[in-house]
Input
Amino acid sequence: MTTLVKGIHHITLCPGGAQEDVDFFTQVMAQRLCKQTVLMDGSIPIYHLYYGNADADVGSITTTFPYARKPGRSGSGQLSATTYTVPHGTTRFWADHFTSHGVEHSGIQERFGRKYVRVRHPAGLLFEVMEEPADTRNPWTTTRVSRDVGTRGFFGAVLSVRDVRDQEQFFIEALGFTKVGVDGPYHRFQAGDGIGGIIDLHHEPDRAPGSWGFGAGTAHHIALNLETDEALTQQKAKYEEIGFTDTSEIKDRFYFHSMYTRSPGGILVECTSNVPGGFYQDEAPEALGTTLLLPPWYEEQRAAIVARLEPITVPEQNRARGAAAKPAAPAQPAAAQPAVPLSRYKAKFDADTQAT
Output
């Protein structure tokens, strides 16, 4: 069947401390901090941090809600690992790199004939670097990770399920993925034929379910790229046609538009459309991620929001160097975006509570 899904748009996780998270992504994973903003739901100011490749490409962005208020419970019904592409023959470099940072990692392993290394975030979250020689996206570089070994963007994601059947049906019938193979407990699905659209369902029948709300050490959702608002409305109709009537309204996330549904295996799946300018609509390419930016409807509450956020230090090397980054073209002209009703939450923040 045809699919509206072009690949993974972003993946959203809940670590613990904000500075700990910045240090892990920028130093250990050698990602670029692409955006500092805040969670746009609820009345508690919480960072929403975005990390990606040099160009902040859709399909390279991991976002985090540092949530030290309470721990989450990892388990089945959650995304269990985020997988990035790296060039062929570089997994040995990455295993040594992780060792040099003193972080827990798996050493070189293999799944579906590809070498990868799995590494653990201080909050317990899992990441993988998987060899994919065909990925030509622009990697971010640091003093310890050069262009020839850097991550390009997403290869895909691993999702933990107690029962594969209903989750498989959801990806195939509701989202148009194709099942492309099985390797032991891993069932692989792909959207389209490009890089960055792989989902591996990890069959773990005895693993207890994980928590669904915000909590340190857990994944929150996976977002799929549908590119346009028109595609979002078509996907919403598709969901409802086959019985997923609890799908959310389309929400305004400023940098993109989003729609959410809880899939049968428990994983929260977001479908996303892009807006003109994307991450570049409020920051120059060379300045991405260097300052806290708020959606326009929260700007008047900046003082109250900042008062409750953990101060963070952005690495000096976070700034673009030379031709390392280029502005992304708008997803499509503004006039071509169909008018769809958008939900926008506007909380009232209280500055009298301690930072969280």
Observations:
- Residues 16 and 68 are 4 Å apart (CA to CA).
